[in-house]
Design brief:
single chain; mainly alpha; 468 residues; 2% strand
């Protein structure tokens, strides 16, 4: 049993937080905000039947994320079985050899920036196996692989600028516009990126000097490359490049953040264009959304179409194609398990809302808004809420109403504390999926990240004093 928990320490840590969440429902009354007033209810306990019910309901509530992870697994298993994909990643790795620090800094910035502006940050996971395959061939270590990819997504949370899943939610709750405090958000993004990658570079330099072989093992390593898939590399580069480009364009908040309507107009024109008196393209395309309005089903469809194009381009037989997809599903099964563990914490926190009661007690320790207490409240709530919308739903309306004169400034504190907590919280889906993917223990991650977390909390508090 001891060896099992050592091997699966992510489940152990998330399990501990699940138990803590359950215990809180047994000793703390539920609280719901009615404007600025807390309506305290009864103690409603999570029972044994509830525990398993919500565990199963997680598969229902978050089906779109489960299928997304599985499709990513199948997609990359198909790609990794082609010699052209291996040649492409080998080529990039070879060109980047000796420029490891520059490679890491550039990739980290791109991912963090995408996370800060895209309206769906989960889609970035669809690019990460490609990057990790390159980093594996560059013989970089696990921690460097994690911070460059998954970790950088979380840095984008801290300095979220146009992301509808963070900045957009703030707009609705705290009556903001996207460009309100834009320079402050850019400053927060820049500070967190620079500090985060300062630790990354120091770590990477140490590892590059070390003679120990600690290279990360890519989940889709391309073993047993299908011989029948041999072909030129440039078609793969074009196909994959178009996949990335379309994905990014499809999830930019064009209308909400930039007031760009060209993609809506083009999509409408194509769907309404008539041939022989009928909107043929509208019939053929079906319920396709304009770029900027896609959800997670959209990128899954795009991955399936891209995989089929690869199959036809490199003449992969149907049996090998479906076998590869099945193998990919099996490889990401462990990622789905930790994903659901993270969301189980969220389910209990939302369905049995004791967090507002705790936050109300914390904030009432002071007669006026207190930056330290606000930071503690934000961090505490974010430890149990996998996505920002739930953090905002639980305490956002209270903070915006009670401290209406500084509500816009508080929104910055909210998103920064959520991003900081996401780097350590066992309810953080991106964190758990990334650590599981690269087989990094929670203990090793904590030893690496704790200094950055302390520094960012201090910086966040200082910046709040400045902006308030």
């Amino acid at each position: 049993m001891k060896k099992f928990w050592e091997k699966h320490d992510l489940l152990k840590v998330s399990g501990i937080v699940i138990i803590i969440t359950v215990i809180m429902t047994w000793i703390i009354k539920q609280g719901n905000w009615n404007g600025t007033e807390l309506a305290v209810g009864e103690i409603t306990r999570v029972g044994i039947f509830d525990f398993f019910t919500y565990g199963l309901l997680g598969m229902f509530y978050f089906t779109i994320l489960v299928t997304f992870i599985f499709v990513v697994g199948g997609f990359y298993q198909v790609l990794s079985k082609t010699s052209s994909y291996q040649n492409l990643t080998n080529y990039i790795a070879k060109k980047s050899k000796g420029k490891e620090i520059l490679f890491v800094l550039i990739v980290s910035f791109i991912i963090a920036a995408l996370s800060a502006v895209l309206n769906e940050y989960y889609i970035i996971l669809a690019f990460i196996p490609f990057i990790l395959s390159i980093m594996s061939k560059m013989k970089l270590d696990k921690i460097t692989g994690f911070v460059t990819t998954f970790g950088s997504i979380l840095i984008g949370f801290i300095g979220s600028i146009y992301s509808t899943k963070i900045a957009g939610i703030n707009n609705g709750i705290f009556s903001l516009e996207y460009n309100d405090f834009i320079w402050f958000k850019l400053c927060l993004f820049g500070i967190s990126y620079i500090l985060f990658n300062t630790f990354t570079v120091l770590h990477l330099k140490k590892k590059l000097k070390s003679k120990k072989d600690e290279a990360l093992n890519e989940l889709f390593d391309g073993e047993n490359v299908t011989k029948k898939s041999k072909g030129k590399t440039w078609p793969m580069a074009v196909i994959f490049g178009l996949f990335v480009l379309i994905s990014i364009l499809a999830y930019m908040p064009w209308v909400e953040a930039f007031n760009v309507t060209i993609f809506n107009d083009i999509t409408k024109s194509i769907k309404e264009y008539e041939l022989l008196g009928a909107p043929v393209f509208g019939y053929l395309l079906g319920n396709v959304e304009a770029f900027g309005n896609w959800d997670l089903f959209g990128i899954q469809i795009l991955m399936l179409i891209t995989a089929l194009i690869v199959k036809w381009t490199y003449k992969i037989n149907l049996s090998d194609f479906f076998t590869s997809f099945g193998e990919g599903f099996a490889k990401v099964g462990k990622l789905v398990v930790v994903l659901l563990a993270a969301f189980l914490i969220l389910e209990f926190a939302v369905m049995f809302p004791v967090l507002p009661t705790v936050v109300d007690w914390i904030m009432n320790l002071s007669s006026s808004f207190n930056v330290f207490l606000g930071t503690i409240s934000g961090l505490f709530t974010s430890l149990f809420t996998t996505e920002y919308q739930y953090t905002a739903n639980l305490i956002g309306s209270y903070l915006s109403g009670t401290y209406a004169d500084i509500a816009k400034q508080i929104s910055i504190m909210m998103q920064s504390t959520f991003g900081i907590a996401a780097l350590i919280a066992p309810s953080s889906a991106i964190l758990l999926v990334g650590l599981s993917y690269l087989e990094i223990s929670y203990k090793d991650w904590f030893k690496y990240i704790w200094k950055f977390l302390v520094a960012m909390i201090v910086i966040s508090i200082i910046l709040m004093f400045i902006i308030i």
